[in-house]
Design brief:
The protein is mostly helical. Helices cover 53% and strands 5% of the residues.
Length: 312
């Protein structure tokens, strides 16, 4: 007499549709996902994936279907970027890999390559532009953006900064959390949890800010003590100051890119910059920012020329 074999309930019921399995997959993975990632997955599935191919069973989705789905996204009225398409297809691919493995179906994602992504949107400000922006802002916002310009903190990191993480005497702050889309999150990588050395202007800005919010927990907050709403800051403060100065509108995240280019232009050690910014790999600094440094320093090889001038 053969031993009884346990068959998972879902397999006993047959191969499910993509939409049916998506619900199971999301529920199973939710404990290991950050809330922002879970929201990103949900949006990708609900808006793009499931309305298009959610009614197909897992074993009925072929590689050609994935290519057709990607082409459909590319021609959509919303005109999603290549990066956005890759993210959505990445969610679909992860869902299919788990489903096809669980139900013994062919994996249609094998060999599927991501779309080539155009270089990241990096438009740092010059030193003069940064000084003009800070000079045009009202004091509390000037101090907020001074910290962002001169530490390279991401938006959520600045908005989630607490006084318990700031050492004014030691000129140091610690990045331990971020306020992202109305929720608290921890750094995504080990390098993201870091100590940031503060330049003198940053210490001065934080000392002034301490007079405003030092009795509370958050360094930067609304007038009633709640975390900043980044969209409100962009719409009511950031864009208006750029418009007033005749500067091209760009995301406030460009303050981080500005910090990187100014640090490189100043000749700071690349490994130090990597640690300050929370990058896992210093190579990103070269690939993203090196092309901006000559324009900032106005060297363009003349420093090396001066060094070897005496060689016959």
């Amino acid at each position: 007499m053969s031993k009884p074999v346990w068959i998972p309930e879902e397999r006993a019921l047959g191969i499910p549709t993509l939409e049916a399995f998506a619900g199971t997959w999301q529920t199973e993975r939710l404990p290991e996902w950050k809330r922002s990632h879970a929201r990103t997955v949900g949006e990708a599935l609900d808006f793009w994936v499931l309305p298009s191919i959610g009614d197909r069973s897992l074993d009925a989705i072929a590689r050609a279907d994935l290519l057709a789905f990607r082409a459909w996204m590319h021609s959509h009225d919303r005109h999603p970027s290549a990066a956005r398409i890759n993210k959505v297809v990445g969610v679909l691919a992860a869902l299919l890999r788990e489903g096809t493995q669980r139900y013994g179906c062919p994996d249609p994602t094998i060999g599927l390559k991501a779309l080539q992504i155009v270089e990241p949107d990096i438009h740092p400000f010059s030193l003069a532009q940064m000084e003009a922006i800070l000079g045009a802002l009202e004091p509390r916002w000037a101090d907020y953006f001074s910290v962002r310009f001169l530490t390279g903190l991401r938006t959520g990191e600045a908005d989630g900064l607490m006084w318990a993480d700031v050492d004014l005497q030691g000129a140091m702050l610690s990045v331990n959390r971020a306020w992202v889309d109305g929720e608290w999150e921890t750094p995504k990588t080990r390098a993201g949890r870091r100590d940031v050395v503060l330049a003198a202007p940053v210490v001065a800005a934080l000392e002034r800010q301490h007079d405003r919010t030092g009795r509370g927990s958050l360094v930067f907050c609304s007038r009633n003590g709640t975390p900043l709403n980044r969209r409100n800051v962009t719409r009511r403060t950031w864009y208006p100051v750029l418009d007033a100065l005749g500067l091209t509108r760009r995301r406030a995240y460009q303050t981080r890119h500005t910090y990187a280019t100014l640090m490189l232009a100043a000749g700071e050690n690349v490994e130090f910059i990597r640690r300050q910014m929370g990058h896992s790999d210093a190579r990103m600094l070269f690939t993203r920012y090196a092309r901006f440094v000559p324009n900032l320093t106005r060297q363009d090889g003349t420093a090396f020329g001066a060094l070897v001038r005496g060689i016959a």
